[in-house]
């Protein structure tokens, strides 16, 4: 990703902020704007920007309830009614693919969260599409136009989704590349907004947006006949089961999960099962070395 | 000279009566189309799962006159969301396009702007229903009054003109 496009993404995300906060965000140095990962707004506290080294206050007056309402309105395009299901899950995807996480007092119905009765915090994540992020590993996971089922791991914020997106984009755009079914439960990979992907996920990719992963894998298999299924952040037993079933049908898999090392993977039953059942051929561990992202490969089969 | 003056008085009276009738007709037409547009808006949002912008654009395509102009204006200005609130955009368009309505009717339609896009489908539907009922009642009353007083409002200036001519002559 180029320097200018990183700043451009920052500027676009800042459009979701109320005026006074936006102005203060724009006053940040260019280098900081390039690296900024999130904006955080909490009622009663000044807004802040999340940087790789930690959260930095933007100063100014404390955030008000009215300003948070403004963020919600800008993020939903004044269409809260179309986003209520996502809001009940705690986030909205705004135009441009920016995820706005919410916190506050929830309303429940039948034991399920039905939405927020009041919002007290918002986190605007500045997602960045890094075209070419998969270059260091693509030859290993997609040798001679044949995809190896690949598992990507890293701690939170390590760049798993970015790498997954770019692998999907690369293989799906390659000449003679496979059809990819993409399960995008939290609208983070293709970042759908009003039915349109905000991120490039390739020309042969069918995206199932907002659907729970375990259901999405089955639906994609029945409806779109994918050759590859890509899933972000496997966490539950049913997600793993769905992946195993897909693999038994001859479908190649690309998936990510939260873990810092293979040792950590082995310590969790769900992840251990994925490793031992032999459905993945390659493991990519994303690490930070000298403040930079580095990829370490391990062959699993 | 007197004849010319009399002709001018009659023409002015006729024009004044006609203008009064035209304004009433325009208000009735705006009220009628605004009321039915709220039904369409409700259908687009509740049954069609449309976003506010899509719903407004779709409704504006099916209408004519001031109401179409109003919805098109709001849909167009929604590009500026983030710079201004939806309510500000809506209120401004109400003032610019629906000035022909009474204070009470304007208040009903402004209330729609304060709730549209801020709540779930059920609440939005309730807000639209409430506004639709208020406007329907207003339309019915106004139509009844128009039927009753329409001819009078046209003939009154004419009668006044004739009386003036009689006095002059």
Compact summary:
The complex is a heterodimer of chains A (301) and B (169). Chain A has two domains: 3-125, 2-Layer Sandwich (Beta-Lactamase), CATH 3.30.450; 135-299, Rossmann fold (3-Layer(aba) Sandwich), CATH 3.40.50.
Please describe what this structure looks like.
The complex is a heterodimer of chains A (301) and B (169). With 301 residues, chain A is α/β, with parallel strands linked by helices. In chain A, 35% of the residues lie in helices and 30% in strands. Chain A contains 11 helices and 15 strands. In chain A, the strands form 3 sheets. A 7-stranded mixed sheet of chain A has the order 11-8-12-13-7-14-15, sandwiched between helices. A 6-stranded antiparallel sheet of chain A has the order 3-2-1-6-5-4. Chain A is globular. Chain B has one domain.
Approximately what portion of the residues of chain A adopt beta-strand conformation?
Answer: 25-35%
Helical residues, percent of chain B: over 70%
Distance between the termini of chain A: 33 Å
- Helix/strand-derived category of chain B reads mainly alpha
- Using only C-alpha atoms, the radius of gyration of chain B works out to 21 Å
Query: Helical stretch count of chain B?
Result: 6
Number of helices of chain A: 11
Task: Provide key terms for this protein.
heterodimer; A: 301 residues; alpha/beta; Beta-Lactamase; Rossmann fold; 2 domains; 7-stranded mixed β-sheet; 15 strands; 30% strand; B: 169 residues
What secondary-structure arrangement, pairings included, does this model have?
The complex is a heterodimer of chains A (301) and B (169).
Chain A lengths: L2 H12 L4 H8 L3 H6 L2 E5 L5 E4 L2 E4 L7 H12 L3 H10 L1 E4 L3 E12 L2 E14 L9 H7 L8 E5 L5 H14 L6 E5 L7 E2 L2 E2 L7 E5 L3 H12 L3 E4 L5 H12 L3 E7 L3 H5 L2 H8 L5 E8 L2 E8 L2
Parallel strand pairs in A: 7-13, 7-14, 8-11, 8-12, 12-13
Antiparallel strand pairs in A: 1-2, 1-6, 2-3, 4-5, 5-6, 9-10, 14-15
Helix pairs in contact in A: 8-9
Chain B lengths: L1 H46 L4 H10 L3 H13 L8 H12 L5 H13 L5 H48 L1
